[in-house]
Amino acid sequence: MLWGLVLLLMSGVIVGNIRGIAMSTVVTLLVPEPERDRANGMVGTTTGVSFLVTSVISGLLIGLAGMLSVILLALTLTAAVLVHLTTLSIPEVRAARTAGGDSHRTDLRGTIALVAAVPGLLALIAFSTINNFLGGILMALADPYGLSLVSVEVWGLLFGVLSTGFIIGGVLISRWGLGRNPLRTLLLANLVLWGVCSVFAARSSIVLLAVGFFIYLCVVPYAEASEQTVLQKVVPFERQGRVFGFAQSVEQAASPLTAFLISPIAQFVFMPFMTDGAGARLLGPWFGTGPERGMALLFTIAGILGLVLTLVALGSRHYRRLSHHYLEGAEQEAPEPAAEPEGRELAAAA
């Protein structure tokens, strides 16, 4: 029964990723290019709201009525969503076709060729992948580090409050956008993210950790919306689903891999190093000692490496080429509506 539940949940994650890819493509279809950055910000806001609401409701339901009630509520709401989707109509008045023919054929080689053909796009995906490798350290160790400072009840409540940063970041994007060059915004956001990561564990302080996490979560939507906005402009509409899927599969594979590897490294190398090893003797007088300081040292190292990576990216020719490609009209708008008046009315309504 447990493995059956695990497999169903994994299937749900796969479908959720497909839904995310479709959402980015629909934004391209429905929203004019100058407003897509704000639309991507709103997508991030709604995602943040869903995380917050889900965390609160699931926690209360598990505590009051058990896991079965959570599953029943999820199934009920999923059924309601399916009913609602039947009432929606996407005004796509032309079937999306690739230049090579059948748009339904799996074409990984063509997708890779397209990514390689856009100046700097492959480098952007590689940059995001390396970022996620480093981000896996935060994903794996954030909870253990927080729980080393406060109780599980306090940590859960605190993280629920801090998650509002994700909502605030999305709201700010929807109000003011991402600027003329979202690629630059992406790299500047990464400077802030890694700068925060390198200092929020400098002391064993829950206040410092909370402030750092809040800033981090406020800035994350800027990085995610910036990448989506760049891809929506430089990738032909007919290929966006494939490219979004390719980028997502490469980038998202990094964090779980790092999380899997970093936990034993933290436990068997860095924690002893900062408890009674050489690190405790060399760094302990000003950095502190103990197992949690080993995790803190990993955060600091990851932050410094992330800062170096981002600064290198800012000075690279790949950044300049992709920025030039974005700013000089490489835009691919959503398909033009058909010539019939009815099609134009649909497009106007969208």
Describe this entry's structure for a reader:
The protein has one domain (35-68, 119-349): Growth Hormone, Chain: A. Helices cover 78% and strands 0% of the residues. It is built from 16 helices and no strands. The radius of gyration is 22 Å and the shape is globular. Mean pLDDT is 82; it is low at 98-103 and 330-350.
List the helices and strands and how they pair.
Layout: H1 2-30, H2 36-65, H3 67-85, H4 108-117, H5 121-147, H6 152-162, H7 164-176, H8 182-199, H9 206-234, H10 240-252, H11 254-275, H12 278-282, H13 284-287, H14 291-314, H15 317-327, H16 341-349
Helix pairs in contact: 1-2, 1-10, 2-3, 2-7, 2-9, 5-10, 5-11, 5-14, 7-9, 8-9, 8-14, 11-14
Summarize the structure.
With 350 residues, the chain is mainly α.
Strand content: under 5%
Unreliable runs, pLDDT <50, ≥5 residues? Answer: 98-103, 330-350
Main CATH class: Mainly Alpha
Number of strands: 0
Distance between termini?
45 Å
Structural class: mainly alpha
How much helical structure, as a percent, in the residues? over 70%
The number of domains: 1
Per CATH, which architecture?
A: Up-down Bundle
* CATH domain fold name: Growth Hormone, Chain: A
Rg, please? 22 Å
Q: Mind describing the biggest β-sheet?
A: none
Put simply, the count of helices is 16
Principal-axes shape call:
globular
**SSE arrangement, N to C:** HHHHHHHHHHHHHHHH
If you average the pLDDT, what whole number results? 82
